[in-house]
Amino acid sequence: MESLLLIGGLGLQEILLIALIILLFFGGKKIPELMKGLGKGVKSFKDGLNEVEKDNKPSGQSETSLDKETEEK
């Protein structure tokens, strides 16, 4: 039970205080919009990472065939 309350060294009181400050700072209507924007940003970042990984792999060749070609040279 104690491990659930101590997330990253923060206790339940600290988490509640931070949540209250965020609620007061942004207001109840703005928070869902912020979370939606954050979700879109994370999705875009993941899509970009997947695209970079696809661009780095040569088409039609697996990693094992690339290793064999390197060893032959």
TrEMBL record:
Chief place where the protein resides: membrane
Compartments in which it is found: Cell membrane
Keywords: Cell membrane, Membrane, Protein transport, Translocation, Transmembrane, Transmembrane helix, Transport
Membrane-spanning segments: 6-26
One of the record's GO molecular function terms: protein transmembrane transporter activity
Keyword Membrane: yes
Region (Disordered): 50-73
Membrane topology label: Single-pass membrane protein
Cellular component per GO, a single term: TAT protein transport complex
InterPro entries according to UniProt: TatA/B/E, TatA/E
One GO-annotated biological process of the protein: protein transport by the Tat complex
Domain of life per record: Bacteria
Similarity remark: Belongs to the TatA/E family.
Record's subunit section: Forms a complex with TatC.
Name of protein: Sec-independent protein translocase protein TatA
Taxonomic lineage from the root: Bacteria, Pseudomonadati, Bacteroidota, Bacteroidia, Bacteroidales
Gene: tatA
